[in-house]
Amino acid sequence: MNEQEFAELAAGAALDALSPDDQQRYHSALAAHPEWQRIADEDADTAGLLSGGAAPVVPSPDIRAALLARIAITPQNGDVIQTVSAPDTVPEGLPDADQKPLGAESTPKAPVRRLRILFALAACLALLVGVGAGTVAINTYLNRPASVIALQDIQSADDAQQASVTLESGGTATAHWSASLGKSVLVTDGIPALPEGETYELWYVRGDTPVSAGVFAADGGEATAALAGDMHAGDVIAVTVEQAGGSPSGSPTTDPVVVIPTA
């Protein structure tokens, strides 16, 4: 028996799926080649991971269905028929065609290569389940809103600053900015919801000149809004209530409800 054949048997042994004959061949080979113990140990460890399982997070139905379909068509019944062609004439002293040929095994060998394939497929399925939670976390990270990414960039900057004000509603508004990045983000908590047809508009006020920096809506009184455009040192961050879509004139039409100096 070579190492590859033993590896096939080791996979079946780890899954407790060997026939009695192959069990004997497996143990005999392991006794004759103790250096192959590492193969058996690796397969046993993998089988342990399969049995232990991971967090019950279901992978994509399409991926799971494809793997299960592949497993379903992989023969697992151990039926391997070995045939020996009988000669036209049987020499004297040899068994006839109705008898078992000399040297033929009484029990067919189990398809250990198929077991190895099944073992690998099962490991892949377990891996997909195990990484399911990690995939969700990665997708959540990659699909972060632009405002959240901007806020994290600002907070990571060496010159990150912030300032908060109390709103008339009792809520708070906090501006985060980084002059080196030229970015700013407004985070509100408890800002009133606006009726249909109105929106909050962000402004950079530079001296006496307001520059529109986009609009935002408050969901349940909370909002994280990145200001559009580049922030300049000394800008005042302001918020006004405007008609849906923002001020048509490009200038504030109401008194600001939030005013936060950055200087």
UniProtKB/TrEMBL annotation:
Transmembrane segments: 117-142
Membrane topology: Single-pass membrane protein
Keywords: Cell membrane, Membrane, Transcription, Transcription regulation, Transmembrane, Transmembrane helix
Stretches the record annotates as Disordered: 83-106, 243-263
Domain Anti-sigma K factor RskA C-terminal: 120-257
Cell membrane listed as a keyword: yes
Main location: membrane
Compartments, as annotated in UniProt: Cell membrane; Membrane
Protein name: Regulator of SigK
